Each structure stands twice: as C-alpha cells, then as structure tokens.
Amino acid sequence: MTIEIEATLAVCCQDPDGVLEAVYALTALGPYRLEPSGVSVLEDTYYDTPEGLLARTACALRTRRERGNTLVCVKKKERTTMGLLAEREETETPWCDRRFDAVARLLSEICPSRPLEEGLFDPTDPEATLARLGYFPVQSRQTVRRVLVARHRDAPPGEMTAKVCLDRVTYRIMGRNLVHREIEVEAGGGTDAAHAAAIAGLLRKRLGGVLFPWPHNKLLTGFAISELASCGLLRPETFERGLSRGDYKLISRRLAASPRT
User: Fold this and answer.
1) Mind listing the domains of the chain with CATH numbers?
2) CB of 167 within 8 A of CB of 40?
3) What is the pLDDT of residues 133-150, one digit of tens each?
4) pTM for the structure as a whole
C-alpha cells in the first residue's frame, strides 16, 4: 500500500490541448527543473457491486491497461488536505493470480464479497474474474497522459520531487465522446507533499485563469457528467465544443449535492 497525494487543476479555455502542449514544453518552473518522461495511453475500467458498496465506503476498484500490461488497483480513504491536495491509500499490483489474492482479501475487508474459487482466476479477462467476486464495470475511459518529472533545485541528485501528469481524459457518455483535460501534480515518494501544492500554484500563476483547482477525481467527474447528460442538463453541443467553465460549476454542484464517494 502507498499513500498517493496530488493536486489537480482543470484546464478550460478555447485551446485546452494547446495549454497541455505548452506545459509539456516547459523546462523549469520556479525552483523546479522539469524533464519530459514520455507519453502513455491508459485504458481504465472501474468496478463496483450492483448495490454500489464500494462507492458508499469511499473506495474504488480499477483495472488499468497500459503498454500491453494490466494492473489492478484498490483506492480507499480519500480526503482533501490543505484545501487543494487529495490524499488516498492505494494498493496496485500486476494482474496475476499470485498477486490477486492480496487484492481479493483487501476487497473482502472493505465490503462482503464472494471468495474466488480455485482455478477461476482468468489472466486474460479481468472483467470475468471480478464478476465472479460480485464486481461489475461502472465506468470506462481512456487517458492520454504526458508526464513531466519535477526536481527541486535543492533535491539530492536523481531524486524526483513530484510528477506532473498532463491528462486528456475521454469519457464515453450516451454513445458519444466527451473530453476533460486536467493536470495532476503528484508528490514524489518520500518528499514533502507541499511541493505538489507549490507546483500547482506556480502553474496557475504562469497560465492565469485557464487553470483552476479541481478537487474531484476522474471517477466522480465521469459519474457527474453521465448523470447530467442523462438528465438533459449538459447540452448536446457540449460534446462538440468541450466542457466550459459553466459546465464545471454544474458538475461541482452535482457532486456536492449527491456525492458518490
């Protein structure tokens, strides 16, 4: 288990992809050096019981496919600190039978679930395996992620201070794609979490009003978007032009009124 600490900024303007490209081109930000660390495509699927037991206990179960590899992750005890940072416990492991036993035990501690019978783990089909435990897909999305490694000028050589993730998130809503852009600043292992907040603050100072704090994780954001679209509160043209600042306010109000986790 690790503790994940991050600050998230939503990107909203006429050219949000251009903003992400501009940030990826930065080599320094205040006292931090920035180094590009590649691009990846993340295919994420989240699961819950039909009754939504994980959501009720502020937990999440995710499989992630990246570069041909599959990971399974359990997140729990998410909370917001310092008014900006999200902190949560996270257990992530490769999708394989000898590692999955620990994940299954962790899930059984969170909510009642059926034991996985011997020989029913499928190394090629996470959805079928999780269904045998009573968990079913509740959200799927694709994220194109560009990563910058941030190093403070006073950090020891080679030590990562934070990871800046530039995310283009595509949700499939009512048969159509809707894109959300955000920047996650994740505190590096063993470093002061305040660096994540500091880097987020420097980005906002540099780029002005196109960035704003977004204290909602991607799972909840997708739930709210789906609910608003199904109620007709997100107009059809939103799927063409992208989310506006007004749309983000609507999403925040929806989550405040009926939080899922």
Assistant:
1) 2-257 (2.40.320.10)
2) no
3) 889 999 999 999 999 999
4) 0.91
